[in-house]
Amino acid sequence: ETVRENAPGAAKIMLVGGAVRDALLGKHPTDLDVVVSGADVIEVAEHSGLNFKCYPQYGNATLSLPNGNHLDLIQARDEYYTFPGASPTVMKGTLEQDLARRDFTINALALQLTPEVRLLDLHDGLSDLGAGLLRVLHPLSFMEDPSRIVRGARLAVRLGFRLEERTLSTIPDALPHAASAIKRLKSELMLVFQERTPGAVFETLKGWGAEELYGFGDLTALKRADEERRRGEHVPTETLMALWLHSFPESERKQVARKWQIPKRTREVADLIQPGNFGRMNDWEFLYWCLLNPEQAREYEVLRLTPPRQVTGRELLELGMKPGSQLGQLLEHLKNLREEEKVSSFEEEMQAAKT
Ligand code: CTP
Questions:
Q1: Which numbered atom of ligand 1 lies nearest the CA of 31?
Q2: What confidence tens digit (pLDDT) does each residue in 104-153 have?
Q3: Distance between CA atoms of 349 and 38, rounded to whole angstroms?
Q4: Is the CB of 148 under 6 A from ligand 1?
Q5: 107 CB near ligand 1 (under 6 Å)
Q6: Which among 22, 38, 56, 113 could bridge 4 via Cys, Cβ 3.0 to 4.6 Å?
Q7: Strand partners, 73
Q8: Best-predicted range by mean pLDDT among 11-25, 223-237, 273-287?
Q9: Is residue 246 in contact with ligand 1, taking CB distance under 6 Å?
Q10: Residue 199 Cα to chain centre, angstroms
Q11: β-sheet bridge partners, residue 172
Q12: From residue 266, how far is each of 253, 288, 318 by CA, in Å?
């Protein structure tokens, strides 16, 4: 409202992208992207009366809203690709051009704020939003930017949407251009790990015949991690990345980690984890081991992601015990003590385990 009411006369302003899509889906977007044409972004920011930071080299300004959220003001732009996979060449454009350069119809919806408030649906995004479909705006979209396939997979999983058939059929022609888009694919890979269920995103890519973008292997452990997250458990990003890397054959892991700039510690975790070494593992490393070895983890009752009420195999492993029958016997002994009410707290059980 503030931006709209204080906009300079000639300014055309519209709310765009994920915020419009999510608001129409009944969610509450916090990242607001607002595109400006017919006026300078800095001028609009100054008129708003709000605090802002500006980035003139990008034609952007970030306004601080009274509720603590931020609003990005962006100069309307047009862009073209000099070759498939190239970084786009960007220039000033109209609101219409700014919408036409976007990836999916559901992301090309806009809420125009000035001179009047109205929904701009120039690419039939509204009907795709209703039908749960991801559709590119033109057949060369994936070829120009193959990282959009990954964006599509993230959205498909997050929103429960399907890739429209013709869009799906453009994937094979886009894949040979992936090497030119390596930088954007790298950022997309990190964003995949920020999604709630990354295993499902990789599986979706596989279902679309696009697994070669990252070339992963067996996804079983990663999907197990998805399952834990669906149940509301906390699984850190590092665990997911390590599991993904582990899906590659051992001989390829070093090269894959280098290509996608995976941190060294994440790459080395598989070698660090040896029975007897559990005490030196931090939480995400321990979880990695559990998700890779669910049978053992269950056997020793260590696949537990919530705080302990009783001593389990995990605490015993952390005390330095090795997996094996002795550990099983000690767990049995502690269970008896509990049943006989000889111990009545976690601390007392720990004490008993140590002695
Ligand atoms: N976009 C695109 N091609 C890309 C990256 C982005 O066309 N390779 C467009 C999309 O239409 C997107 C907009 O740029 O709506 C802004 O991108 P981004 O901020 O990453 O996405 P949002 O839509 O804001 O949010 P979300 O990540 O939730 O989709």
A1: 24
A2: 999 999 999 998 999 999 999 999 999 999 999 999 999 999 999 999 99
A3: 71
A4: yes
A5: yes
A6: 113
A7: 34, 61
A8: 11-25
A9: no
A10: 11
A11: none
A12: 11, 10, 20
